[in-house]
């Protein structure tokens, strides 16, 4: 063999040859990919909506970072980057145009605060902000509006997500939540 090793069948290679790649197993992602964690009643009703349930749970279970009068901030359970936050209204509404003026104002203010806090604790170089309105637009939970605040750093799109289709997150969600909650202004 020319430079390739013979491997047993456990490496998953049909030809039995090593491909020279290391494996980073992320089995927790299967729950998201398969939809196993979707409630039987769906997301359409508040009883099945994780954004309606989160503010009612203790902080260490909910990943809620901050609470306002009309909105709250929660870590994304399946983040694109460390510190990926969602700003959500308490009210179960699907469309941005369904928000009233106080909700819209507080959502904007909490988005700005989220950016400031993330910059303070992790020196983010930039951000992706956005709302996916409807399933066709990419919303995983289209029934409850949520604003994404995704911190970005130079070089954060390395070979892992581009080629390996895997995102490496250097910090546990609970630890990230604690760090951001401590830095959130009172």
Rg calc? 19 Å
Number of helices: 6
Distance between the termini: 65 Å
Structure classification: alpha+beta
Low-pLDDT parts are: 1-13
In percent, how much strand structure appears in the residues? 5-15%
DSSP E strands, number: 5
Indicate the mean pLDDT.
Answer: 81
Order of helices and strands: HHHEEEHEEHH
Give a short account of the largest sheet. Answer: 5 strands, antiparallel
Quick one: overall form?
A: globular
Tell me what the structure shows:
The chain has 186 residues and is of the alpha+beta class. It has six helices and five strands; from the N terminus they run αααβββαββαα. It has helices at 29-34, 50-53, 59-62, 101-122, 159-162, 173-183; strands spanning 64-67, 71-75, 85-89, 126-130, 147-152. It has a five-stranded antiparallel beta sheet. It is globular.
Quick summary:
It is built from 6 helices and 5 strands. It has helices at 29-34, 50-53, 59-62, 101-122, 159-162, 173-183, and strands spanning 64-67, 71-75, 85-89, 126-130, 147-152. The radius of gyration is 19 Å and the shape is globular.
Which short descriptors sum up this protein?
186 residues; alpha+beta; five-stranded antiparallel β-sheet; 6 helices; globular; disordered N terminus
């Amino acid at each position: 063999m020319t430079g390739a090793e013979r491997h047993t069948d456990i490496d998953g290679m049909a030809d039995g040859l090593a491909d020279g790649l290391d494996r980073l197993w992320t089995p927790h992602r299967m729950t998201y990919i398969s939809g196993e964690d979707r409630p039987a009643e769906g997301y359409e009703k508040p009883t099945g909506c994780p954004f309606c349930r989160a503010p009612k749970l203790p902080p260490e279970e909910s990943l809620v970072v901050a609470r306002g009068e009309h909105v709250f901030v929660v870590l994304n359970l399946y983040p694109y980057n460390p510190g990926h936050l969602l700003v959500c209204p308490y009210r179960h509404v699907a469309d941005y145009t369904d928000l009233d003026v106080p909700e819209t104002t507080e959502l904007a203010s909490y988005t700005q605060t989220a950016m400031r806090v993330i910059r303070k604790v992790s020196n983010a170089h930039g951000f992706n902000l956005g709302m996916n309105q409807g399933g066709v637009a990419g919303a995983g939970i289209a029934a409850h509006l949520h604003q994404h605040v995704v911190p970005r750093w130079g070089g954060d799109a390395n070979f892992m997500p581009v080629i390996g289709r895997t995102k490496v997150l250097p910090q546990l969600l609970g630890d990230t939540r604690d760090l951001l909650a401590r830095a959130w202004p009172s």
